Amino acid sequence: MIRIERIQSPEILAQAHQIRKLVFVMEQGCPESVEWEFEEESVHYAAFVNEVMVGTARWRMVNDAIKLERFAILKSFRGQKVGQTLLLKLLHETESYGLDRVLHAQIEAVPFYLKNGFVAVGPHFWEAGIEHVKMKYVVTEK
Question: Which of 40, 83, 45 is nearest to 61 (CA)?
Answer without folding.
Answer: 40
